[in-house]
C-alpha cells in the first residue's frame, strides 16, 4: 500500500512538472505569447527549473533545448524512482527510451487538451483572454485539415477529425511505449 502511494505521488508531481515544461517548450516553438493567464502560469511554475539550466545548455536552432532536456531528465528520474519503489530494475536504456516516448505521449495530450479547450471556447466565449493562446497552439495543425473537411451547417468539424487522428496516434504511441519498456 505504501509503495502504491509513493508511486502515485511521484507520478503526480513529476507528470505535472513535465507537462508544464513541455507546455513551455511548445509555447515557444509555436510562438504562443506568454502574456495570458495560461502562459504566465507556465512561466511561474517552470522558470525556477529552466533558468539555471539555460546557463549551461544553449538553445538549438530556435528550439528551447534546455526546457526539453529538463523535461526528459525529470521524466526519466520519475520513472527510475517509481521502479525503485516497486523493486524493479529496468535499466538506464529502458528508462531513457520510455521517458522519450512519454514526452511524445504527453505532447499529444497537451495538443488534445488545447483542441478541446479551443473548440469549447469558440462556442462559449470566443473573446476570453486565453482564447488567442489556444488558437495559436491549434492553428498550425487544424489549418491544413480545413482544406479537406468542409464546415457542415456552419459548424467546423475539423477539431473532431483532428482529435480522432490524435487518438489513433496515441494508440500507436502507447504500443511504442510498451515495446520500449521491454528493451
Indicate the mean pLDDT.
93
CA-based shape: globular
Number of strands: 0
The total of helices stands at: 6
What letter string, H or E per element, gives the SSE order?
A: HHHHHH
Which stretches are low in confidence, meaning pLDDT under 50 for 5 or more residues running?
none
Number of discrete domains? 1
Radius of gyration: 18 Å
Distance between the termini: 28 Å
Portion of residues in beta strands equals under 5%
Helical percentage: over 70%
Sheet having the most strands: none
Account of the protein in words:
By secondary structure, the chain is mostly helical. It has one domain. Helices cover about 75% and strands about 0% of the residues. It is built from 6 helices and no strands.
Concise account of the structure shown:
The protein is built from 6 helices and no strands. It is an all-alpha fold and 183 residues long.
Q: What structural keywords apply?
A:
mainly alpha
Helix and strand arrangement:
Layout: H1 2-29, H2 37-54, H3 65-86, H4 92-124, H5 131-146, H6 158-181
Helix pairs in contact: 1-2, 1-3, 1-4, 3-4, 4-5, 4-6, 5-6
Amino acid at each position: 500500500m505504501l509503495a502504491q502511494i509513493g508511486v502515485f505521488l511521484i507520478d503526480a508531481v513529476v507528470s505535472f512538472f513535465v507537462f508544464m515544461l513541455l507546455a513551455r517548450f511548445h509555447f515557444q516553438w509555436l510562438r504562443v505569447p506568454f502574456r495570458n493567464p495560461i502562459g504566465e502560469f507556465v512561466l511561474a511554475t517552470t522558470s525556477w527549473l529552466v533558468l539555471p539550466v539555460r546557463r549551461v545548455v544553449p538553445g538549438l536552432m530556435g528550439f528551447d533545448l534546455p526546457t526539453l532536456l529538463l523535461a526528459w531528465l525529470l521524466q526519466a528520474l520519475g520513472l527510475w524512482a517509481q521502479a525503485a519503489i516497486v523493486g524493479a530494475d529496468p535499466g538506464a536504456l529502458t528508462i531513457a527510451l520510455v521517458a522519450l516516448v512519454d514526452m511524445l505521449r504527453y505532447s499529444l495530450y497537451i495538443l488534445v487538451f488545447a483542441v478541446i479547450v479551443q473548440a469549447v471556447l469558440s462556442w462559449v466565449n470566443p473573446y476570453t483572454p486565453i482564447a488567442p493562446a489556444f488558437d495559436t497552439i491549434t492553428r498550425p495543425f487544424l489549418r491544413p485539415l480545413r482544406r479537406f473537411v468542409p464546415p457542415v451547417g456552419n459548424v467546423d468539424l475539423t477539431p473532431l477529425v483532428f482529435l480522432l487522428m490524435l487518438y489513433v496516434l496515441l494508440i500507436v504511441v502507447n504500443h511504442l511505449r510498451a515495446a520500449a519498456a521491454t528493451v
